[in-house]
Design brief:
single chain, about 90 residues, mainly beta, two-stranded antiparallel ribbon, 1 helix, 4 strands, about 5% helix
């Protein structure tokens, strides 16, 4: 749900860490632009742990409609792909 922040919000994701994750369209800091689409997630380091996003994916009868037999059979492969960029001075203004 809402991969790549395409909803323009953090909807569907749970935030963690000491810094809030924000949604950027490349306007907040030049050079930190979405890889595809109009938006991307951006985070930073706070006084504790860095920001993070977590999303729980429903595999059993979820969007891909995997069956119990597929999940219990030990032969199902799930691939997670993401794009990561770093911009160390993003929150250091």
């Amino acid at each position: 749900m809402n991969p790549g922040a395409e909803a323009g919000t953090t909807a569907g994701w749970t935030q963690g860490g000491s810094s809030n994750v924000i949604v950027d369209s490349g306007q907040l800091n030049a050079g930190y632009n979405p890889r595809t689409g109009r938006f991307c997630f951006a985070g930073g380091h706070g006084p504790g742990s860095p920001s993070r996003l977590v999303q729980t994916i429903q595999l059993l009868r979820g969007i891909q409609n995997f069956t119990t037999q597929q999940l219990d059979g030990g032969r199902l492969t799930v691939r997670v792909i993401f794009y990561y960029q770093t911009y160390d001075t993003f929150f250091m203004r």
